[in-house]
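USER:
I would value a second opinion on how I read folds in token form. Give me a protein, with the fold worked out from its sequence. Write it directly below this note and I will take it from there.

ASSISTANT:
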Amino acid sequence: MNKQTESGSNDNEIEQRQPTSRRSGVNLPMLAAGAAVAGIAAYYHALPRKDPIRTAGMPERYVIETPNRIDLQKNTECAAFSSAYVLRHLGTETDGNELYRAFPRKLLDGTVDPRGILVLFRKRGYRAEFYRGSIETLKKRVSLGIPVIAFIKVHADQRYAHFAPVVGYDQDYFYLADSLGHKINCSEPTHNRKIPIAELEQLWRTNPFYKQSYIVVSP
């Protein structure tokens, strides 16, 4: 016989009245909080997927020669300035400061994750994809004729990240239309920065989630 409680209910009855979530060890508030955090992360952040493009038939040297201008940022607006460069290439006149004021998915510190760039272009009717690739796939994407926005470090030994349009390459260098004034090392009609391929590979190691990533935009 089961021992009675002071209220007259036995132990089996008490056990049967416990909420299912408690009996199974599920913490509903923690699950809800986890789902909320995951939702926020998905809203502001994106993860790259492997670039499926084939690299056969790629030219050894290629430079996008469509006339464009290279504007310089003052603070943390590289996402807007690189996006503006690509938009101008596609025929929409704009500038980085104008874009930055209403840039989507802006973080509290004023920076923008790749997700923000994807949202910006998709809202304007373009296709935008975030890829993880290699030196060869990056070259192939550039050779298709539209600037590719690379996600790199500002300095190889620091964590600060940066977006910059890649507009060309050869066997030794990548050519960038960079909005960081202190990174300018050349003055060409098509680009203002040359990066040795070995150096780009170092700058490309941003973090385990975003390393060797870039954004591809197309009409």
Observations:
- The first strand starts at residue 49 and ends at 50.
